[in-house]
Write a structure and sequence with these properties.
By secondary structure, this protein is an all-alpha fold. It has one domain: MetI-like fold, CATH 1.10.3720. 68% of the residues lie in helices and 0% in strands.
Length: 300
Amino acid sequence: MSATTSTLPPPAGAAVEAAPGSSVLGQLKTTMSAWPAMLAIVLLSLIVFGAIFAPWLGTVDPTLMDPAMRLKKMSAEHWLGTDAFGRDVYSRTLYGARVSLIVGLGAVVASLVVGLALGVVAGYFRRADALIMRVLDGVMAIPGILLAIALVSLSGASLFTVLVAISIPEIPRVARMVRSVILSVRNEPYVEAAISMGTRVPVLMVRHMLPNTYAPLIVQGTYIFAAAILTESILSFLGAGIPPEIPSWGNVMSEGRKYFQMLPGLILYPGLLLSFTVLSVNILGDALRDALDPRFSRRM
C-alpha cells in the first residue's frame, strides 16, 4: 500500500515553525529592501560621502572672498555661482553638509547618553523619580527654538554652543521614554528573580533592563538627528546659530535670501540638500521603527 501525503492542518497546540522573516533581522532586511528605504540610504550615503571628501570635491576654499566675482551665475569656475561676497556657493554648500552632520551626530550622542542615564535613575529609584521628572517637565515647557536662541545669545555663537542648545530640549523626551521602559520591565519575573538572587544594581541594569531600551533608542536617535539638522539650519538662518564665517546650510540660505529673485540658487541648492537629508533620515527612522516594533505596523 503506497504512502500518501497528508494535507490536513496540524493539530491544535502543535508547534508551528516561524516564518523566515519573523525574526528582527529578517524584518529589518525586508523593511530596508523596500524602495523608499533604499532611496533614502542612497541619498544619505551621497551626502555623507560629499561631506567627508569635501576638501577634494570642492572647487575652491569656501571662505575665500573675491569681490570682483560677487553674485555670478553658474560657470566652469564656480559650478553653482557665487554669493554676495564672491564665495563659491558649491563649495560652501558641500562644506555645509559637514556642519549639519556633526551637529546631528553630536546631538544624538549627547541627548541619548544623558537621557538614558536620567531615565534609568528615574525609572528604577522611586525617590529620585519625582525630582527628575519635574525638572524635565520644566525643560519641556520651554519651546526648543526659544531655549536654543536664549542659550546662544547668552553664551555666544559657536558650534559647541549650538550643539548644547539643540541637545538640551531632546534630553527630556529620551529620559521619559527610557523611564517608561524601565518601569514596565522592573516588575517582570526575571528581573525580580535577579533581585532576589542578590544581583548588583549595575549588573541588573546592563544585563536585564538596558537591552529593552536599545530598539526605541535607535528609532528615537534617527528623529533627533533629523530634528537637530533642521534646528541648526533655522538658528543659523535667523542669525543665532553657527558663526557666519563657518559655512553651513542655514548661513548660506540666510546670506542669499536678499538676492533670491536675482539668483534663486543661493537658497535652492542648500535648501534641497537640507530637505533630502531630513527626509532620508525620517524615512530610515520609520523603517527602523517598523522593523524593530512590528506591532506598530500591524496596528496601522
